[in-house]
Amino acid sequence: MGRTIPSFRPALEHEIESWKDFKRALRPEDQKVFDKLMIFARIHADAGSFSARPILSELLFMCFAIEQNKKIEELTKKVNELEEIIRKDK
User: Fold this and answer.
1) ∠ CA 82-29-38 to the nearest 5 degrees?
2) First CA to last CA across the chain, in angstroms?
3) What's the total number of domains in the chain?
4) Is residue 31 part of a domain?
5) How far is residue 66's CA from residue 55's CA, in Å, rounded to a whole number?
6) Does some domain include residue 3?
7) Residue 35 neighbours by CB distance under 10 Å
8) pTM for this model (two decimals)
9) pLDDT one-digit tens code per residue, 20-30
């Protein structure tokens, strides 16, 4: 039996390509953010390959959420460290 879901990496590139008109309509600074989000999706392509989800955009959004959460945690840690430094200086 053949696969019912296309190989992930080519399907991912096809999905990203399908968003090109949306990207083109964005302001230049937002186009850069869009490109970063697509990089997040590519970074997690191996995990996407194992998920075998028929709706590819779900995987895109999960990749975005993972990377954004990592950034939030990193920034929260830095804020906590800075607050601790401020408390010590008082």
Assistant:
1) 85
2) 69
3) 1
4) yes
5) 18
6) no
7) 11
8) 0.76
9) 999 999 999 99
